[in-house]
Structure to design on (1188 residues):
């Protein structure tokens, strides 16, 4: 409804994990001409026979929109291609593209940006799109709830949960947990966010008082990349409670203290890509469509 | 939980409507010494006998926190006092206050700000607090839902609703309507907001396409202070549908067209103050507490 | 989806209030031939010009399905026809129908049943259909929530509600109130229902202990046609709280005590018919379709 | 709130899996004297040192309430004791109990009933309690949702689900899935249940038409112990969709057809006991308390 699908055109979907494979299929389903490279291990189904695998990027037709994976580059400057036997450097790959080629990539670092600029490519980082961040947060929140449901010895519907941090993931965790009947508290620092927490039907807690109340919860989700769950807080966590850390490295809790105290911690990363590749692919597709539409590309 | 109640101190709660009366009671219930003036018509109940009505602001003790209503000033420069026989100019009122007195007021305009500055008063506009805006939005969304439930010839639970605009009120309308089983679409302009709408479980619609789909809904809530609901849109609104305009003046629809076309429009303003004075009072109380806490007042 | 619309045929929609008018329109919209009588005051819109008003039931074509209103009979044995100037006895009306005519009616009492049997008519009471009772309960619960939102001095989203009784309406009130962020308790007598209450995410309370906890709530909905809200309970109800009685006569609370104690009671009856006539009409239409389908009529 | 905890007394908690261990702890936490036997492998924590393990049931004090596990008897007539090295026949166990001893057991079959009757024991099957069935259904629905979230390649929040059957589990699945933003259809045979489905905010589908619409869903939950998901239905299930069968043996789908057609089926049994032993234990505890209260035992 709210995404404008471009007129059929050519896309080259290179490298990547299962998300990238799903993305290739979804582009094909939207009647685009799709070329793939370096993600062959996960063969495309019969239904996708319109997808053409090329032997080398130099075989890609001119005028393709090139889609690099999320992240685009693996350590060492190689195209990230965990499903493939191919090993190709980003430089070699970019050398095959004509100046002006639109290149969509996820988590662009300085090297890639420079390399693309040198070759006159139109590089855009879809991972910086806010709409992708929101949709990813929704998928992450759902995956985290599933992890909790599985790992808690109680049901969420009869338990009390604390969500530390009220950013994108914190907001959507709060809504999802409430949707399952869980009694939810969420923490924030700003008055404004505390008001939002209550407007979402949860109990608002100042982040600085989390250590005082950690004993009240059956499950604690951390979404803040800072040591909110310090030793003091972890000491109070109930036996049988589970702490799920969703903050990217270095994470938001004192892991040494957690280990010593025997707190049950689950470090949940890369959630949407792993557990929901079709949705994760569709989220990237939507952002690419938006980039093309806005850029008149 | 998240609001720090100040140690007992003196408050002067002046003028105002029912919200202000409720606020006086709530301050008294928190063990503060409360003085009132110019809101006497709505007598305080026996339970509130600790509240002292003064005959003139000059009788207020030194050191009070003075709380003016929302809005503070009525047309002509008078204290806004719809429940009272008293007519006192803001200037006369402020003249009675010692320099340095903290004065909390809602919707402060230039005249009041100047008058307070001249007298060395510490004026703060609680209506500019974001946490108040959020809590008011929650109350407004609920009131709007009640208006819809009453005025629609269908139940919300079996109907389709369109929320135009995804600011504070739009977000909370979307959640509340979904909570009643309504099928909700919401409109926004930014991709990011469109992603939030879907993450909230509603259908996302670009605001620019609202005119094309207005015929699909049993109720349309406008929250945008701009002519999104133009004649084109109104022409398509279904017979039996209701349009509820929540945007402050000049509102967000073409009223002339609506009248001509016979569209059933409800202009719903000042919602939380009118329908939920206790909650509206408590929202002001919380912001005042936050202001005092932050300011070290 | 789940209702089988009959092939176009003739219906006679007689008497009744706005629901009945809506029902006539909905039948016409499903391409049936619709005749009306004794509900002329509320003229059918231009869009419904296929609806034919007859001057007397004797003018109805043979083979119609006759639909009497809910309730079918007014005091004195007249067709219930509050929108009409017509005054016709049920006996006179039934005399015009050929034996074997299917007659759908709501709230059939002994007299009507006997009169129909004597004339060999196939009378069915659609008000006895369980699916109608459920759908009506949904509409009633929503209307009761709107009444609460309007009449409480607090918002539902910040308040605590008690639902007395966990039948159809009690269940749907509990879900709807929770959907608006209200903290809900519900009472029941059976262990099984107490378990359902908790499974619905609310707090379960034994009905016999309602009198002990009445002071904890901002709003109390009674759905039980028995004196659960006795004087003891009413004495504890908070000042500012509202009691909404949804139980049919004689209602579920001690009205004399309530008046004496100054408890704010709202007696909310006939809700869905009054506030949502289109939905109320559609509910009757669906049941009539189900009756025709099942009966092979 | 709604459960009356008995005065401290003695319980013997015998055999069983993790649920039974949790139950023992919960009884101890309610200040009862707790004896255990045949569930020693899962040692009780330091906090539970009041729990006394006995070497043989003959060492149990007179007057205990004896609690057998769910199910009570393993194949061959042995006490079900998967966590223990002990192998004791139910007969030998019951021989140690004095006539009149209250024995709570789950899933009582004819043999156990006979054996208890012969010895004059007061045997009650807590698994027949309706409140236990409801609470178990809530836990099962939540576990099934977690299984779906994990196994689907899409997020539930962006997907369409079909719940086949609208009994206890079907109702709670519908509510939980909706709480996560999933678009839910549910099927039933009775008009009344179809009306409930819509009142719960889902789309109602006649069970007999499930085969026609199976292609519309990303996940299908079967709760009906009958072949609703026949070959015809399975043939239409989308590639990438998942079918989760919650019906007890023999299950509700044509497994041979599913295997042949390559449909991704998950047979999810014994859910609450496995994934939420604390909640599962508490559910049994509550029913035992209710049995004791009602029986005046």
């Amino acid at each position: 409804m709210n995404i404008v699908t471009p007129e059929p055109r050519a896309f080259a979907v290179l490298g990547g994990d299962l998300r990238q494979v799903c993305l290739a299929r979804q582009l094909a389903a939207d009647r685009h001409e799709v070329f793939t490279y370096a993600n062959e291990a996960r063969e495309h189904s019969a239904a996708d026979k319109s997808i053409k695998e090329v032997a080398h990027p130099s075989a890609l037709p001119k005028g393709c929109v090139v889609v690099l994976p999320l992240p685009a580059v693996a350590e060492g400057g190689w195209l990230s291609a965990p499903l493939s036997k191919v090993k190709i450097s980003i430089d070699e790959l970019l050398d095959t593209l004509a100046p002006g080629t639109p290149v969509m990539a996820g988590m662009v670092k300085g090297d890639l940006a420079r390399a693309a600029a040198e070759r006159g490519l139109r590089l855009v980082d879809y991972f910086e799109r806010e709409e992708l961040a929101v949709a990813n947060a929704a998928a992450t929140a759902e995956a985290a709830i599933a992890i909790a449901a599985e790992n808690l010895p109680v049901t969420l519907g009869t338990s009390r949960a604390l969500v530390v941090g009220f950013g994108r993931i914190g907001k959507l965790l709060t809504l999802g947990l409430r949707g399952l009947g869980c009694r939810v508290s969420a923490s924030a620092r700003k008055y404004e966010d505390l008001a939002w927490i209550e407007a979402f039907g949860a109990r608002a807690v100042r982040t600085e008082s989390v250590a005082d109340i950690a004993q009240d919860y059956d499950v604690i989700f951390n979404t803040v990349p800072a040591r909110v769950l310090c030793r003091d807080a972890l000491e109070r966590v109930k036996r049988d409670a589970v702490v799920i850390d969703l903050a990217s490295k270095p994470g938001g809790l004192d892991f040494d203290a957690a280990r010593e105290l025997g707190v049950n911690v689950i470090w949940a990363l890369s959630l949407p890509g792993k557990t929901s590749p079709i949705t994760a692919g569709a989220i990237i597709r939507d952002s690419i469509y938006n980039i093309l539409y806005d850029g008149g590309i």
Observations:
- The domain at 135-273 of chain B is CATH 3.40.50.720 (Rossmann fold).
- The longest helix of chain B spans residues 130-151.
